[in-house]
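Quick question: what would this complex look like in 3D?
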Amino acid sequence: MNRPATEFKERIQRALDDPQIRTNFRRAMDGLMAKRAAMFPDADELEQLRDLGAAVRRNALARLPGLLEKLEANCQRNGIIVHWAESVAEANAIVLDIVRKHGGKSVIKGKSMVSEEMELNHHLEAHGIEALESDLGEYIVQLAGETPSHIIMPAIHKNTRQIAELFVEKLDGVEFTEDAEALTAIARGLLRRKFLDADVGLSGVNFAVAETGTLCLIENEGNGRLTTTAPDVHVAVTGIEKVVETLDDITPLLSLLPRSATGQGITTYVNMISGPRKQGERDGPREVHLVLLDNGRTTSYVDPELRTTLQCIRCGACMNHCPVYARIGGHAYGTVYPGPIGEILSPQLLGCDEAGALPGASTLCGACGEVCPVRIPIPKMLVRLRREAVTRDAASPVKDAGAQRSTSEALIWKAWARIHAVPGLYSLVTRTASAFKKMPVVGPLKAWSSVRTPPRVAGRTLHQRMAARGSTK
Amino acid sequence: MSHASLATVGRPRRVYLFGTCLIDLFFPDAGVDSVRLLEREGIEVVYPQGQTCCGQPAYNSGYHEDARTVARQQVSLFPGDDPVIGPSGSCASMMKHHYLDLFRGEPDFAEVQALSTRIFELTEFLVRVLNIDLKDLGAPQKVAIHTSCHARREMGVAGDAEQLVDSLGNVERVGFERQTECCGFGGTFAVKHAPISAAMVTDKVDTIDASAPDRLVGGDCGCLMNIGGALEKRGSSIRVQHIASLLWERTDEPPSN
């Protein structure tokens, strides 16, 4: 195992040993699964909607280069300034430059996973700019000096008591209360002023509509609307894959995303941003920027299988339904995107050296693929990326392919293949095992036996019994 | 999933049994009982002695060349048109679905593709092709079913095992909390991520224990080994059994004198 793989296992163990993490995630995921199920009472409707959602995303990706050009042209026509960033460094530089041109003191942020991918807050703070998260969950996580543990509910790893304690510890003059509404009111009170004082509001994008140059942003707290309207400048950052062709395309996606994510029929706020304040208008930002980030996405794009990862609309249903995520929580993954989608996306964004062990943390139970609203074949991709992780191939589109390959494991599989491809050899091995009946409790069996009795080898194999029955060829 | 091929199968005279490596070594009763059930329906069962493993362990671990080497050995054993029955949703799914990915672009792809249409999971075959009629002769019993994730989500046959158990007059089928959640086996996952696997199976047997069935049956011996081992370790009296064995045991008429 390389260092990132070892550290991954250490984080997993720490999470499993933390009863608070176990309880918080289990409870939250159980709730989210039940809410989603209640939102899709009609299985046929759900399957049809998923077909439609998948078709919209596949169609958009099939025509991605053209749609991006169209998006750029139509955004520009609407007065939105469009920037292209190939890397995280480029995207950070673009945002920093915009902030510096407009006061250069403070940024108020709506929820954006791409900005997490950019580690934008660190970058801005390193340049003396305050970047304050205004989504309640993100605010909590920022206050705690942590990272999001879920892409939709960033502070889901904390319960109300932990949040109450955090507020008392970090905020001046706050009394301990476990009343969720009171805690929300405290954050709201502190944040409200910041919206008015910030030089720049920064947000993500859920869907960018090529045909109209519209940025669609959904949220529940109104902080997204304030972020994108109160400050003089609005900067939206997004991955290049978020483009869709027409406004009509948004309809099925808007129907799928909140229902899959939080079990809501629709989010409280649906923002359709079509440009800066126009002449004669009394509010809205004076400038709107769109930063389109690649960060390895085009590399995945050229591979038809890997491309399916880019269909993702970031609902988080795959993590809500993942039995592994429910046990270890989001931080154990050590990447911006946790859970099943993170296990297939992170190796593509970061390479197999850094993230090649992630796809292994799945039983391939298929729960993720079953709920994905846009039908990303996540289990199949997990297997594909496991192969990439252990197969050295200079032509592979995945960075550091083969980085997780170990000589000993490769030898074990070679030996295994030899035994199972030569019936005589297989017969010798299995008959010997059944003659001895017991297997030595070492290595893998030792770990197995921590909570289970070791498997018992039968006295006669099925091969032997069938041969004795005679109904055999 | 396999409905198109089901329509063309009809009631065959002969089938192959793919016994799976876990059944071969650890649960041969499940294999023999599968054969008995099929033979009682008047079907000749052919068990090619050259069979070993479907190749899934290496496939899921990313060692696809090794997986293909082993898979190829199986493909050659089932010539003709006869259905291939697997008493395992996971292995059946490997051969039905994943072989297509594993052999894409290979010279023998057409052969693999033809084989994939003939693969059936045991309960699927009993219910949908044979429309089997079971006469329950057993004592009253409470039975819980654990359907493997691959049987449920890849083969789509969860309902078939339920239908079979429900057709046993003296059996009460009991459910348990989070029944559709994975038991944590996952093949090599149980070794590579032993701590997560242990946490998952511990939760699983907690919920099974809580609903107190006399027996837990399933169609996949990987899950049964996992759940059964965990139940036994904690001294639970709940026995695990392959569904083929339950069906045979409860419907086998004692020879009349």
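Answer marked as accepted. The CA atoms of residues 53 and 303 of chain A lie 21 Å apart.
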